Amino acid sequence: MNQIDMKNLGLTENNIQESQAYKGLIVGRVSSQSKNLYKVITKTNELTAEVSGKFRFSVSSLLEYPAVGDFVMVDRSDNVGGNGIIHHVLTRKSAFQRKAAGNTNEVQIVAANIDTVFICMSLNNDFNLRRLERYLSIAWDSGATPVVVLTKSDLCEDIASRLADVSSIAIGVDVLVTTSISEDGYQSLKNYLSMGKAIAFIGSSGVGKSTLINRLLGQDLFDTQGLRSDDKGRHTTTRRELVVLPDGGVVIDTPGMRELGIISADFSKSFTDIEELAANCGFRDCTHHGEPNCAVEQAVKDGIMPAERLESFRKLQREAKYDGLNSKMIEKEKINEMFKGIGGMKNARKFLKEKNKRKV
């Protein structure tokens, strides 16, 4: 590998200053992960590395382990003497994270230290506004800037209508329309690429993420497959991977994610319209669920806001609220919510007592 400009990989002055505290170690960026092994790019090489025993013993959460896009401190720049050893993860400026599939108690970092999140959604039957709201909420919370990338425009008969739908919920977010069948169908993406910038491609399987990345790279580095006949994506990309772009900057390809569990979300940006309406509610702590003089519910009644938009907001808020709670704690929270307007905790305790009696 030729000498790598680490600043083009996104290494910042803050990273450099932080790295100077670790004498005898080399700074690198994680480009991929396979089980307990990582690929790390340094200024002279790309090597295979693993975390040290001391590191593994000292961390208290999976979030503290290296993820694709992280800057780490390793003890060598090649594998001549065996695997490199990762001793530290430098402070992240952003992290797109979700609940790990199949386990609600684990958190998975999809990509770290990213500047822009390209949320990819195809303009055929994969099109789903409610899923897009979920992606936007998590993307804003990550610390990166979301951009909606609508793919496969050649398969859509009414692009203007689709654009209007997306613009109604992606408030303040750039929306790009792309196609893979023409040479200039991806050019709008290049405006977000530059030296030192990192872009992550996020979206369901088969929407065209890898195809777009191949176009930006100028070569078919990633395997691509379209949607199946039932419009569900084929899982082509099987792991997250960071690659350096020929014209500067890096991109991170990610496996398709039809389901995206919320860990935390920024609803103030993804639901700006509801936030603005809420300023006119009769109560400062209005939940927009049956309170008198609720401006948000009134907007739905007046046809200003779709009912589906408000229901999606409520659903995502509930999901984020219950994150990290076990089943008993979630049940208690739901019961408290049920009875908060009719006697509060007193009736909630009575309900639980009667329920427990019936179990006996």
Q: What integer is the average pLDDT?
A: 83
CATH structural class of the largest domain: Alpha Beta
Rg from Cα:
23 Å
Sheet-strand content, in percent, reads: 15-25%
Task: Characterize the structure shown.
- This protein has 360 residues and is α/β, with parallel strands linked by helices.
- Helices cover 30% and strands 20% of the residues.
- Strand 2 and strand 3 form a beta hairpin.
- The N and C termini lie far apart (69 Å).
- 35% of the residues are buried.
Keywords:
single chain; 360 residues; alpha/beta; OB fold (Dihydrolipoamide Acetyltransferase, E2P); Rossmann fold; Ribonucleotide Reductase Protein R1, domain 1; 3 domains; six-stranded mixed sheet; five-stranded mixed barrel; 11 helices; 30% helix; 20% strand
